[in-house]
User: What shape does this take?
Amino acid sequence: MHKIIAVLTAFALAGMTAAIAQAPAPAAAPAAAPMPPTPRQAVMQSNRTAAASYSAITISNMEPDAARAAAQTLIDNGGRIATLFAAGTDQNDPRAQPAIWTDAAGFKAGNERFIANARKLQAAIPDRLAMAVAMRELQADCAECHKTYRVPLAPTPGGRGRGAAAN
Ligand code: HEC
Assistant: This one.
């Protein structure tokens, strides 16, 4: 153990000496660690997971409790969206359109439609047809809001931007 510490210390000292010798050291390249999601991104990622979970139940094994939980997550997320994008919360997020705040009434109306349709998702369980119809309406709410209030990703060469189609 002492040996390891001694070796590590020697390396660290050698590194420091080298860095001082080369001063001014070139700026280190920023680490390419993925950024953790912002609270807004996290609520949207939860929307995607919950909608996918509900859809999977609609077409496979009927698990009413799990479907209800997924619908409840979407209802709760609607409440979080109202708070997370409230007036005065503009932080110049690169993917959030300023229209969220300049047209706050339109954004609120879109979110309230989303919450109402999330409630329909819950009411439809376990009728698969009603569940599928309700999910189509909810997905239209996701798409409608994104079209107006989210900055689209730049298209990638040879394909569409990540998430451009799916979200
Ligand atoms: C009332 C408006 C609104 C509704 C409804 C809405 N979204 Fe979003 N969504 C946004 C906005 C605005 C952003 C960009 C937020 C940001 O980057 O800060 C976003 C971003 C996203 C992202 C990208 C998150 C990331 O990691 O960058 C996903 C995925 C997503 N939404 C999925 C969904 C799904 C699925 C639904 C429906 C079940 C939905 N959203 C409903 C407004 C909405």
